[in-house]
Amino acid sequence: MNFQAELISIGNELLSGRTLNTHGRDLGEALSAIGLQLSRDTTIPDDIPTIGSAVDEALDRVDLVFVSGGLGPTIDDITRDALAKLLGQKIIIDQPTVEYLKSWYEKRGRTVTLAATRQAQVLESANVLPNSVGAAPGQRIELANGKTLFVLPGPPNEFNAILSEKIIPWLKETYADARPNLVSTVRTKGIGESDIVTILEEAGFAPKNVDLGFYPSMGKVEIRLTANPDHELQLVEAEQTLHKLLTNHLDLFD
Amino acid sequence: MNFQAELISIGNELLSGRTLNTHGRDLGEALSAIGLQLSRDTTIPDDIPTIGSAVDEALDRVDLVFVSGGLGPTIDDITRDALAKLLGQKIIIDQPTVEYLKSWYEKRGRTVTLAATRQAQVLESANVLPNSVGAAPGQRIELANGKTLFVLPGPPNEFNAILSEKIIPWLKETYADARPNLVSTVRTKGIGESDIVTILEEAGFAPKNVDLGFYPSMGKVEIRLTANPDHELQLVEAEQTLHKLLTNHLDLFD
């Protein structure tokens, strides 16, 4: 079992400049917090062959694949069809979702139409993940090779609701051995990124088992240290060394 | 010559939830405006083999590949090395960039360090694209197979400055035949997406050569019609039909 996940977002509007895609950030943050890792984030157009090949390649690389978008009632919503074709599965109508859609529409003073009930279409092997804030449900599809495919609606509030209510709890239980990386941050100000590098290189600073990330912005530099929980001591030592080496440049009141 | 482009953004911070990646939206918008099309947007970690394979696959699919991030002076900045390895090219120091970096640092009351001058490293065949708002320049690399690779720094203000100042003008000249799609928008309110679909389906509305996108939010639905400029008449007809069919639901005062 590996701890890596990929995200594939589907939608022409994400590639034309109309809509900013925030799923990668939100999913990356949610997975990191439980010790899993988003290892690739891909956005593709509403095109059945492209969806098929992109999902297939992701399932080759990692155990967990998230697909978002294209689950609505309109003709540009083709994700279900693309996945059914790729996986050789039938599309079925999920009756509890039909009932849910009826009451969802009634509450809004509307009648559920045939078009609306298209959103109750799921893959035959799907575990349906009810959507508490919108119409189309999510789906968890456990494949014969042990890999798991999650299918989520595109609107960020629906994506995030199903993720936090239905998927993260399942992942925490299923990947109970996963442990989040330890992260610590050293913030500096009034010194450039390359001057920091010079100081660290002259001091021979090259911590083992600790990843360093440098994020400059507006006269400040954030240094992020990341380590596996087995290497907590090395992380703490690296952080202390940075504090010593950069003592005159620390941004302590952030 | 095809009109499709792919973007590959590099950086662990884009996959951990630390940083929201806005390049896909900005590049997608800029390319659409000149008749080119962003056809895939991929974010990957700071890892040399992953960068190599992702860029290689993108160059297989399309004529224009944009790579962003990992061009700073620190040890997590490995994009140049990954591309040099993939393309079998040497990395050289661009002397005009060294001079620029010297004056850039001097203006900020700092001395340019050896670490800082790493940002003047470019691929041997690169056309250097000066950065008017930051340190590391962009690069345009024209490959023997007629494809073009653009390399851009990660910070959005630098990415966008080099894009608009150096790359879009070059693309407009090089792809002078490209014509932007025609786009028009019909906005509705007080009617659900699936009710709109029902109305359109009952009327047999299925315009040829016009792509439809439905974007619901907060009681409103935006319908975007997109067509090749050869099909302007069909786009106008489709828009007029939508106005008739949805006449009681139009959101005219947006």
Automatic annotation (TrEMBL), chains A, B:
Q: Which domain of life is it from?
A: Bacteria
Q: Which residues form the MoaB/Mog domain?
A: 6-174
Q: Which PANTHER family match?
A: NICOTINAMIDE-NUCLEOTIDE AMIDOHYDROLASE PNCC, NMN AMIDOHYDROLASE-LIKE PROTEIN YFAY
What is the name listed in the Swiss-Prot or TrEMBL entry for this protein?
Answer: Competence-damage inducible protein
Q: Taxonomic classification, please?
A: Bacteria, Pseudomonadati, Kiritimatiellota, Kiritimatiellia, Kiritimatiellales
